[in-house]
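re: ur question from earlier - yeah i can do the single chain one, its not a big deal. heres the input i used so u can compare w yours
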Amino acid sequence: MKSQRWLACLAVVVLLGFAVLMHSQPQRLRVGILIYEGVYNTEFIAPLDVLNHAATHTGGRLEVFTVSPRLGSVTTAEDLRVLPRYSFSTVPAIDWLIVPSGANYRTDMENETLVAWIRATGRRAQVVHSNCWGAFLLGAAGLLDGKQATTYPQSLDEFAQRFPDVHVRHDLQLVDHNGVVTSAGGVVSYDAALYLVEKHFGAQVARKVATGLVIDWDARRAGYRAAAVDSGS
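and the output i got, formated as tokens:
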């Protein structure tokens, strides 16, 4: 009987120790970067580049991967052939969803499978982020309703007309509305990814990543490079 009580106590101690160990482990974040036919190189390569560098400075806190509607080669707008790691049917749960722009964004908004996946995944994600015309896909999925957002500068009027429930910021090229981050795209896609790194992992990590990529980064500087807003509600 004593040995049974001893074994029971030992089991409790082991389980408590395991629980404490698991609780103390930093959360690993899965970052899913959507790629699809006609996607623009910069808008998905910038976050892929920055966040993979950030993973090396955060002890593996980030797992960054690409996901596409189906497995097989994706041809970008600039004729780069890319193989996604996951398809919609095989991808694990995503904590951060990144939606880049595509050359066919107007017809992509009519792709029910694509938009439905973005809607469902974005609703579960902690962070939703678009670059350039990717905001149109977020808008079509209803993920920007009632929020501040921006997109490619020459498309801001079209964006506002299509999505009247979105508070379109013409004055900013990077907008954060409670974890829904939109950017103007292009080289600002690098700023947006660095902004996410600094927000979630601190200025020191962001500076290390920026230094490694030879980027002049200062999250406090307003204007073209790093303008951002957190509207609070």
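The chain is about 40% helix and 15% strand. not sure if urs matches, ping me
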